[in-house]
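User: My instructor asked us to take a sequence, write out its structure as tokens, and then describe one feature of it. I'm not sure where to start. Here is the sequence I was given:
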Amino acid sequence: MKISLNLSGPPSVAVDGARVEFATKKAEAIFYYTALKGQVSKQSLELMFWPELDEVHANKNLRNSIYYITRIFGAGVFKKSRGVLEFSGSVEFVENIDPLRGRFMEGFYLKDCPDFNSFVDEYNNERDLQLYNSAKANFLRALSVGELDDMETLNRYGALSRMDPYDEEVVFALMEHCFGEGRLDEVVKLYRDFERKMLRDLMLEPLKDIQNLYRAALLRKKAERGAAAPFFFGRLTELKRLSRSHRDFLSGAQYTNLIISGGIGSGKTYLLSHYMRNSGIKGTKVLELVCYEAERKIEYRVLSLLIGKMLKALKVDTKDLPESYRQILVYFFPFMFGKGAHDGQSDVKDGKLPFFELEELLSELFARLTARAKFVIVIDDIRYCDRMSFDFIQRVALCKYHGRALFFISCHDSWLKEYLKTFDKDTLRNIDILELKNFRRDEVEAIASRRLKDPAPETVDALYKESGGNPLYLFEIINSLKDNKPVNNYKFIYLLENRLKTLSSYEQMALYISSAFFSDIMPEAVADIIGVDSIRILELYESLVQNGFLKEEIRDGHLTLMFAHEQFRLYIYQSQPLIKRKTIHMKIAEYLASCAREAECERDYIDSIIYHYHSAGQMVKYLSCKLRKALNIVSVDHDFPEFLSGVTQDFIAKLEEEFCLVSVPLDLKYEFTLLKASFAVKTCNYDEGLKLIRFILESDTDKRRLLKARKQLIYYGIQTRDHAMIRENAIAALRILKERPDDVEKADILKSYALAELNCRHCKNAGRILLRSLAMLDGMPLSETVLYIRACIFNYLAYEHKYAGEYERCIPFYMKSIEICTSANITNGLPLFYMNLGQALMKIGRQEEAKKYFLKFEVLRERIYSALSTTIVKAYLALIYCIERNYRLSAKYLAEGFECSLVIKNSYEYAYLYKICALLKKTALKDCEAAGILSAVLPESYGYYYERASENFKKIGLERELAELDRM
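Assistant: Let's start with the prediction itself. The structure tokens for your sequence are:
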């Protein structure tokens, strides 16, 4: 029997090409261990895999594991030897070793089996060098005979680099291969990546052969390019700005140093490199320095390179310098003399040479050198400049030698603010910021038109959307379209992967969890999930911002964290296994839900909770939260439907579709039925609403929902002014509250009962009930619901005076209701209170104030689906604009009032609508201009509108309102 062992990367076993699955992980481990060892004692296996058990139980577990193995491979797979486990001679193992798949048994780990795990680690250590040499030899051979395609070459090189990132033979072979095929850009990229790695980690330059090959590639590229400067996409404004500073500096005119700021992939380095290669401006010495993160802690590193390059540019030997300068250079800048780091203690630290004296000597040397020539100094990524060099450049070089040295400095945008804080005001006057933003859509179109053949508009849109206008990512996408490369070959992603490797485990965890947020990141949620305090999480995010993964933005006065590029977030998010993503979403949702409970304000969190439960696949919790959101929008517990719109209707329709796709608990179905009933009642679809409420009353047994169903019938009675309906259901609701006492709910029901009494003109009884309801709320926590009920009670207390025609006495009550709502930012009920106040002000002749409140009503009720209270406000605004002789606006509001009246059954609103129509009709009879405009909206006679108004005022017991018409 031939058995294939695949032990590189995650291990597996195959028989005749078919993969086998083991019953337990320990049985699988025993199989691998025995296959590799050849012969092992059963006692050693018991001790290795069950060290915590006694001999009897460990032996039993081993027998079970051996049984699981024989069940797969047959009873003859092992020799029949007592006390020893060994495969029989009929078993032939074929071990497949491919280091490119990963390390030996990668990811295979047994809990509570330290001896086995140590065996795997030791085996790895023994075989790593052997495997690497074998893989390297295979790679070099295959590369030399052309067996590998581009993708396979890249994958194998990447695998070898992970095993040994500093193998110059492999790098040279690949560069030579690319050079032979004319892929010069890849040769250059390979060299620059390798050089940076060597300098950063080992402080060594690549071998001369590699450097010579790199120079040969550059020379060939230059020859192929010819004399013409290469076309540079975009950044024309920035190039002109660099050129202007350069020319002004050369001519002796006033100039400014430039800081080029931008995020990852914005093209800071490429912009500077392109300009310096192709500016064509002579007469200055150009020095280019790159700051490496690994050299950040080497004091004076950048300054030593700068002075060394200045000396070289001027062809000044250090031997020709005065002895005082020479000693300083030898001591502080040993790299210039090839001596490595100094072993002794610094004179500065010993106090023998105070820092100000050192700075003075360096300043004199800098003055001496800049006096001999004008220097353009380009520093790429100043954030990685060592502290001492940075201090000298910003305090001395930029300040004292303005006119002799021009600085072009690139800086990551996340670090720019901190960098600028270090400058004094005088230095800042000589500095300008060039902010490299992502390309606009028109710039993307121009670039695509030049690089791609006649790109369609949808192609340009897709390029802009996917890249976000980021230059690096945009060009990688365009190149992939031209070369048909997959997305994971993008340099953008390559840079991201390299950056990820430099992060600590906690920083990676924070980044992976942050990628699950669809908008602003919540550091406190991430801190809770990974188990760190608030200070530690801010430190982690500071590092992630400085590394360019995230960016900080000020929104509405608050600092928010976001990914620097949406493609970063997508790549990091999608690189995680699905089960891990779902777990993260679940933890975030649970955290947000706990925050909402503690704050007693779910509304602030509900959208995020819904998103994360849905992403976690928790459909019942997702639908439950989505339903609660809909219940809040529809305001099931409030009399007045302030925010019902067409959007709400779509939201409920989509929610119903989702309910049909998932098996949900019966309670959730009843909740959804209650939602639909409330929405139907509040949008005047009374037949549908009453049908759904009857279904709940007949089928449901939950007292809370039965109470809410009764309240919907009360709201129906309020809208249709059906006093009997209000009374009947208020009494039924109070009976329910006897079984489950709730003073807030009781106060709410009582104030609705009082309204029915008011509408029947039982004002004394209504007043007593309202005051009792108000007293019940005393001492209650001032929640939004309690404040809303109090506002409604004050509103209803005014009705006794309104029905008596005492409008002046109504105003303090309405004002109190409005004050309660506005101070607590409550909008439910507020439009009604504005309407009542506006009506009272109109009645006492304060028209301008009334207009103000009617227009406030309009602002709040813009795009509202419900017509409740809207008809009467539209009618009053029509009357006010008619009085102001703005007949066109008057006609507009009146037409809108009629449109709203078609869907509501409310005799109170009908009465005032037709009364105002009669008033406007009388005006039209006296004014030809008014008649010409209003006649289209008021086609009937004055008598018709009078009769309709009279009919409805009699229904509501307000016949006295007709007196105003009779006086005209």
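For the description part of your assignment, you could build on this observation: The CA atoms of residues 176 and 213 lie 7 Å apart. Try explaining in your own words what that tells you about the chain.
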